[in-house]
Amino acid sequence: MKFRLLSALAALALSTPAMAAAPITGKWLTTERDSIIEIAPCASGLCGTILRVLKVGPAGQTTDSNNPVVALRTRPLVGIVILTGFADSGSDWRGRIYDPRSGRSYKSIVSHNPDGTLKVQGCIGFICRTLVWTAARNRP
């Protein structure tokens, strides 16, 4: 009897659908309000591309000038894929994020905040920096 009950509970647990993270696709305004990032499906899951640069930084950066690959330092910021390989991990999305300001890539975790904003984390080990992106409504 006990074995049947355990078997039934195990079958129920295995048949329960996995939880899915809230979708993160769409257009997002960065924390600094200087760029719009579009998150959409790509070959490696979900990717985020710089759709538009709204403000040029203090150094006047309009190209990927800090890229560690010298040949890529003259490419325009618009069109650069900064979020790559994002996959649904149940409660959030996980992948990699590229920071054009530093030229570095980090492990990243993205999820929705209760207020509808996007929590974007770039992590080195267990230490993460958190940014908050807002929906870019009525923006091209």
Report the oligomer: single chain
From the N-terminal CA to the C-terminal CA, the straight-line distance is 63 Å
Strand content of the residues, in percent? 35-45%
Query: So how many helices?
Result: 1
- Give the beta-strand count: 8
Radius of gyration: 19 Å
Structure classification: mainly beta
Strand arrangement within the widest β-sheet reads 1-2-3-4-5-6-7-8
Q: What's the shape?
A: globular
- The helicity comes to 10-25%
Main β-sheet, in a few words? Answer: 8 strands, antiparallel, barrel
SSE pattern: HEEEEEEEE
Return the average pLDDT rounded to an integer: 86
What does this structure look like?
The chain is mainly beta and 140 residues long. It has one helix at residues 2-15, and strands at 26-29, 35-42, 45-53, 81-88, 93-99, 104-112, 118-124, 127-135. It has an 8-stranded antiparallel beta barrel. Strand 2 and strand 3 (45-53) form a beta hairpin. The longest helix has 14 residues, at 2-15. The protein is globular and about 40 Å long.
Compile the SSE list and pairings.
Layout: H1 2-15, E1 26-29, E2 35-42, E3 45-53, E4 81-88, E5 93-99, E6 104-112, E7 118-124, E8 127-135
Antiparallel strand pairs: 1-2, 1-8, 2-3, 3-4, 4-5, 5-6, 6-7, 7-8
